[in-house]
Amino acid sequence: MITSKSAPVVLICDDDPILHLAVKQALQGFKEKFECRSAYNGDEALVVIRNHRVDALLLDVNMRREGEGLEYLPKFRDADPDLAIVMISGNTDFGTVREAMRLGAMDYVSKDFDTDELLHVLNLALQKKRLLLRGEQQNFEAVHLQKSHVMVGSSPKMGELRKIIEKVKKSPANVVITGETGTGKEVVARQLRGTLPDGTLAPFVAVDSSTIQSTMAESILFGHEKGAFTGAERTSKGVFEEADQGTVYFDEIANMPLEIQAKLLRVIQEKEVVRLGSSKPIQLEFRVICATNQKLEELVAQKKFKEDLLQRLNVLPVSIPALRERRADIPELIRHFAAKNGSNELKFSDEAMDALLNYSWPGNVRELSNLVAYLQAMVDAEQVELSDLPAKITEGFVPGLRSQILPKSGESSFYEQVLEFERGILEKAWAQQKGIVTRVAEALGMDRSHLYNKLKEHGLHNPAKDRKD
After folding, report:
1. According to the CATH classification, is domain 9-139 in 3.40.50.970?
2. Number of Cα atoms under 13 Å in the Cβ half of residue 167
3. What are the backbone angles phi and psi of residue 228, rounded to the nearest 5°?
4. What residues contact residue 456 under an 8 Å CB cut-off, 6+ apart?
5. What CATH number labels 149-321?
6. CATH for 325-457?
7. Residue 23: exposure state from Cβ atoms within 10 A (0-12, 13-18, ≥19)
8. Is 410 left (phi over 0), alpha (psi -120 to 50) or beta?
9. Cα–Cα distance between 19 and 42 in angstroms, integer?
10. N or C: which end of the chain has fewer CB within 10 A?
11. Distance CA 59, CA 86 (A)
């Protein structure tokens, strides 16, 4: 793998020493710098590839025996899946070329190559390798980001939300997500993200609408051509081009200025953009997902939001419940955030947990996440006591106020009772649906991945016995 600005390493695998010399002399004569290594058969080449950095392999088709290069090609690919392999042979047989490409070679050059041809083929193979690695890295980062935005909670409210998401996800229509600050609107938006035909995640471009205020708004959204304005030293894609075949996510869409809203409406209607400095429209395919903590209908009445834009956007509305509407999820959320921070589970006294359940959580899930990080840093004891909680949470709280849901001395803690209740629901649904995972998930309003996590958490998960149909 090319990880620095050092010269690419080319391994020459051929049984002819004269060819080694010819390739090395040819590559050393170029302005581009290459480091060359030698192997004279497939076994030697495997040793080099497994123990040293190799960026490109020049592989002879026939060495100790006819077709040895093709025979070893899959072994080289297994040893280094990112290796740029170029076949070389004195006999240009197109059947051999096709077979080499099928087995993973990137290109082909004959032994009577000229130096320019060799350089071109090698550079092209290395360029393909870089592009593939960059694409894999970008997809890895996208998948990692997607996995970090998970929905946590088993309350009825979250069950309803998951059902809505599953339905909305199947439609290409635009979406408006409403919810208070900190409820996790971007988390929901990323749950709606689709995939491309090759199975990779579709583009997802997030935009903070409050930043689309300046005279550069059109450049940010629609892109610009080189020289379109002072400082435009190169052509640049806008948000919509970057999101082609995917999703544009506008966070807090209510903050977008009216004049930009009008331009946005046209792009959504026509599914095309025109870069600044150009008159050529670019056809695109995208979905728009917007989030807001304000009532857009009221803003329309106040002439602060365009009614026709709202009609285009609000095809599929999704509402996220506030944390105070799903307090039963608080223990599970705490455990999730503690694990996400790389720490052991936080334990709470009954009074401390009761105070958390009694609190109104104006900052919602985000506020709870911040509290978990605070407690992990500040509390050294084995469990969090009421006195460890911030004053805003304990202010006005009367211990024992909710004593009817707290266990008596010697009984299970509140958190343990919640887990027992959860386990009972899962066991009942499992029995009713005869262990068919899909039906259990549908009955409980859970997606399959979330159900699997819950089953595993309660020791009920047995992949060997799971039924999926």
Report:
1. no
2. 11
3. -65, -30
4. none
5. 3.40.50.300
6. 1.10.8.60
7. buried
8. left
9. 16
10. C
11. 6
Q: Taking the model in full, what pTM does it have? A: 0.58
In sequence order, the β-bridge partners of residue 289 are 175, 249
Query: What are the helix and strand counts (H, E) for the chain?
Result: 19, 12
Amino acid 64: pLDDT = 79
For the segment 376-410, what is each residue's pLDDT rounded down to a tens digit? 989 988 899 999 999 999 987 877 654 333 344 44
- What pLDDT is stored for residue 296 in this prediction? 94
Please list the residues that pair with 135 across neighbouring strands.
none
Half-sphere exposure of 271 (CA within 13 A, CB side): 11
Q: What is the mean pLDDT of residues 34-55?
A: 88
Strand order, beta sheet including 35-39: 35-39, 9-13, 56-60, 84-89, 107-110
| Two domains, one topology: 149-321 and 325-457 | no
Q: What three-state secondary structure class fits 254?
A: helix
Neighbours of 31 (CB within 10 A): 5
d(CA 25, CA 8): 16
Among all chains, which residue has been given the structure tokens 């302005």? Answer: 31
The domains of the chain are located at 9-139, 149-321, 325-457
Task: Tell me the torsion sign for CA atoms 362, 363, 364, 367.
Answer: negative
How far apart (Å, rounded) are the C-alpha atoms in residues 55 and 7? Answer: 10
Long-range contacts of 193-201 (CB under 8 A, 24+ apart): 193/146, 193/246, 193/247, 194/169, 194/246, 194/247, 194/287, 196/245, 200/139, 200/142, 201/139, 201/142, 201/143, 201/146
Mapped to the 3 state alphabet, what secondary structure does 51-101 carry?
HCCCCEEEEECCCCCCCHHHHHHHHHHHHCCCCEEEEEECCCCHHHHHHHH
From CA 461, how far away is CA 466, in angstroms rounded? Answer: 8
Selection from 250, 255, 172 nearest residue 213 by Cα: 255
Looking at the DSSP bridge assignments, the partners of residue 453 are none
Q: Which residue has the higher pLDDT, 390 or 442?
A: 390
Whole-number percent of the chain with pLDDT over 90: 31
